[in-house]
Amino acid sequence: MDLVKRFLGYTAVDTQSDDYSESVPSTEKQKDLAVKLRDELQEMGLEDVVMDSMGYVYATLPANTDKKVPTIGFISHMDTSPSMSGKDVKPRIVENYDGNDIILNKEQNIVLSPALFPELLAHKGEDIIVTDGTTLLGADDKAGIAEIITAVEYLQAHPEIKHGKVRVGFNPDEEIGMGAAHFDVALFGCDWAYTVDGGEVGEMEYENFNAAKAVYKIQGLEVHPGYAKGKMVNASLLASELIQMFPADETPGTTEGYEGFYHLIALNGEVDHATLTFIIRDHDRARFEERKAFAQKVADAMNSKYGEGTVTAQISDQYYNMKEQIDKVPHVVDIACKAIEEAGATPVKVPIRGGTDGAQLSFKGLPCPNLFAGGMNFHGRYEWVPVQSMQKAMMTVVNIIRITAEQ
Asked: What would the pLDDT profile of 346-403 be if each residue is shown by its tens digit?
């Protein structure tokens, strides 16, 4: 099957995850894609095809050589971000992009412009897949899924390329930090693996944020406003005050590279009660711990001012920087860099200003750097992916499998 056709087929399935759900997967509709993938892998003739009760899908491409070769794996996630709808995605291919504005939706005046996204210009002359501006695209990470499965299909069609046993795995709920929580590393049975969940072509990532989430619950006191003096405690106003206690220059919009941040991702409030959710990020482990301590001090300061129990804070770790695990197995990075070069791209090692399932998997004993999938502007209406970047990502997977067998 054509790589692009496969990808577009996956984008038609709504797989948005839910950060506030307690079920696994967080949304039942993610299983719709899981079933589709399971059936596709079975039709391709792969072995050990499994879809478990939580929607995780695993399969094996058997070795075609008697040579002793490490078992390696490739992983992508099925869910799309809760930040924007992934329902009724209407993708469009802009062929031979000319470097000008791309009108996504004329009626709503939604324009993808290199003035705001100058990285578009690096892909002039390429074929770019975009949305109609009313949904995200889903390249994060359905592009990765399509690239992995197409790479497997390529190897099946080219038996002259000798390779060891290859495992593929597709999981739900990566976007809410739970993708690796139920990933069966023992069942997967790999010496090492790669997530295919990165962005720009050539990127190779094995450093990521340490990550935590802080949820504040504020209890107010609602009284009729006509008789409120000395009695009313407006939880929404307290929420505003709490937000102002965080440093304004340490947000995603004011930081880059290795700089950490605090990020308010949700706010719901009334007079009686309010809830705020922050995510906390830093590459440096010591600074990460300091940030969590500061987040707790914010709640303590509010309680000192307004009374104990006014604000409760639940601060929980989500994942850690995989670098300390990957540094133990440098050949995993070396093979990937060589594979990227042979796919016609330049390896670019960048720190992830976020995280992947590979971060958690690396701490579960499965070294798992992240490879580019080609998509850009994830989680929103301006998401796009060049076809040529997807093709290079697919061939990078093929090359890693081949090089591992050769070495």
From this structure: 999 988 888 778 888 999 999 999 999 999 999 999 999 999 999 999 999 999 999 9
Note if the bond before 132 is cis, omega within 30 degrees: no
pLDDT (tens digit, 9 = 90+) per residue, 82-114?
A: 999 999 999 999 999 999 999 999 999 999 999
Tell me, what DSSP letter sits at residue 130?
Answer: E
Write out pLDDT tens, residues 32-84. 999 999 999 999 999 999 999 999 999 999 999 999 999 999 999 999 999 99
For 268, phi then psi, to 5°, come to: -135, 125
> pTM above 0.70?
yes
Say whether 43 is catalytic: no
Active-site position among 40, 132, 147, 174: 174
Structure tokens at 83: 């930040």
List the one residue out of 234, 207, 199 whose CA is nearest residue 218. 234
Mean pLDDT of 7-26: 96
Q: Is the pLDDT of residue 181 over 80?
A: yes
Contacts 24+ apart (CB under 8 A), 284-292: 284/210, 284/258, 284/260, 285/210, 285/320, 285/321, 287/260, 288/210, 288/212, 288/260, 291/212, 291/260, 291/262, 292/212, 292/214
**Can you read off the two tokens belonging to residue 403?**
């090089």
174 is known as an active-site residue: yes
Residue among 79, 141, 175, 207 flagged as catalytic: 79
CA torsion, ordered 342, 348, 354, 357, to nearest 10 deg:
30
Q: What is the distance between the alpha carbons of residues 316 and 320, in angstroms, rounded to a whole number?
A: 12
pLDDT at 407: 87
Contacting residues for 387 by C-beta, under 8 A, at least 6 apart? 3, 4, 93, 126, 127, 128, 129
Residue 117's Cβ-count burial label (10 Å; 0-12, 13-18, 19+) is middle
Q: At what angle do helices 139-157 and 30-43 cross, to 10 degrees?
A: 10
